[in-house]
Amino acid sequence: MKSESTNTNGVKIGLECHAQLITKSKLFCPCSTDYHNSEPNTHVCATCLGLPGALPVVNERAIRYGIKVALALNCEVQPQIIFYRKNYYYPDLPRGFQITQYDFPIALNGLVQIESASGGDGGRERGIRIRIRRVHMEEDPGRLVYKGTIDTAKYSLVDYNRSGIPLVEIVTEPDLRSPKEVRIFLGELRSILGYLSVFDGDLEGAMRVDANISVGGGERAEVKNISSYKDVERALSFEITRQKNLVRRGLKVTLETRHYDEVRGITLSMRTKEFEHDYRYFPEPDLVPIRISDMVSEIKGEIPELPDEKKRRFVSQYSIAREHANTLTYDINIADFYEEVASKMDAGLSAVWVADVLKGELNYRGISMREASKRVSADDFVAMLRYFKKGVITERGATEIIREMLDHGGKPDEIIKRKGLASIGSAEIEKAVLEVIKENENAVEDYRTGKKEALHFLVGQVMRKTRGRANPKDVSKWIEEKI
Ligand code: ZN
Ligand code: MN
């Protein structure tokens, strides 16, 4: 990522992040928001289909969630909010306008601190301040489904289940300097929203980002439709390279809206950039202004310890490495799981096994801690660690138990029996060592003549013979003794 084309010189990126709020019903109607596994167009009513005469009714909980987000992002919550109509025509928008906020959003002027990886990109300091311009509420449009890609599909299908899902839109100032910083920022944002219990980042399309990018003080292009969190870095790197190549050839970047094609990993010109006046914003006549100042102090009290604070507390309270604290606090479910384990077990050992081993196994399976906790409880994890500490199982046996619990469930003691994971006694180790020595004369000879690496090979052979149920350190001692 450190290539010429993606370095940070003159790159400015601002984001509009749309996050779905996990209320029970939609923003302006009683339809259920739990649509992710439903047939298309089954979570709809007159209001979210935009039928004539249907009136919106504001979901108070969604507004409260929006305020919660604004407070967690250190914003100034405004005394009152007003919904506006943003007029444009697109098939995913059945009314011909989106109900959003324009003047009088929920909040202004926030701040998020991010940590840049490896001591700063392009010489930037460790703690980077990303200013939040505004936070507002709006409804999600429906979802267009293409057969193939947007520019080759012969027709598009539309699903209105998503129409009217409450979104909180978080707009940053153009304070981000590289695709990598954007990824770190979005990670931080996702983490904070998860802590607030208003957002589930594991749901498909839960966070969608539009990015404004300019290079060297030139015009900006807006890239829309970066729907997967993983695509952000790729989409932005492509766009920066494209703009730099234009500049190099003496051409100008035009102010335009581009679409990110996730299949090909490129951005395509969609239309010239629309201006705000094109949308003919005006206050939504079917909704009254809402005073929110009275709600703020109560909601402030509901803000939990946030990731940054928790990270610092973990390092000092549990005396664990910063890297471990980072991994453990990113996802609130992992943080809670760790704390439960650490309350019954050595906190340092728990950190290693949760942050390195369990988290690694989750990543490998692409599942979240929330999902995993249906199969692995903190008590089971503690039981497994106790067996490991007592030497009943080896490190490999312990890892095996975690994998088994994640894949099939079960209790550690039962898995140890069923899979024969109990460590073996010294008599059995000795027997295996003697057999390996007999079977590997060359390696034994190598070791005797000073080739120390032959020992690793011999230990490996014994581990294989004992199916990982011996402690490699013990095996090594046994071999040295017997040769
Ligand atoms: Zn509805
Ligand atoms: Mn928006």
Overview of the structural elements:
The chain has 483 residues and is α+β, with helices and mostly antiparallel strands. The chain folds into 3 domains: 4-299, no CATH class; 307-419, no CATH class; 426-482, Orthogonal Bundle (Arc Repressor Mutant, subunit A), CATH 1.10.10. The protein is built from 16 helices and 16 strands. The protein has helices at residues 60-72, 179-195, 232-248, 293-300, 307-318, 322-330, 332-342, 347-365, 369-372, 378-390, 395-408, 412-419, 426-439, 441-448, 453-465, 472-482, and strands spanning 11-20, 76-77, 80-81, 83-87, 97-101, 107-115, 127-139, 143-146, 156-159, 166-172, 207-215, 221-226, 256-261, 266-272, 282-283, 290-291. The strands form 4 sheets. It has a 9-stranded mixed beta sheet. It is elongated and about 85 Å long. The model is unreliable at 1-7 and 119-123 (pLDDT under 50). Residues 26, 29, 31, 44-45, 47-48, 164 line the site of zinc ion.
Lateral strand order in the biggest sheet: 2-6-7-10-1-11-12-13-14
How many structural domains? 3
User: Could you report the average pLDDT, rounded to the nearest whole number?
Assistant: 90
Fraction of residues in β-strands: 15-25%
Structural class by SSE content:
alpha+beta
Number of helices: 16
Largest sheet: 9 strands, mixed
Low-confidence stretches: 1-7, 119-123
Shape: elongated
Radius of gyration: 28 Å
Q: Tell how many strands the DSSP assignment holds.
A: 16
The helicity comes to 25-40%
Bound molecules: zinc ion, manganese (II) ion
Cα separation of the termini? 50 Å
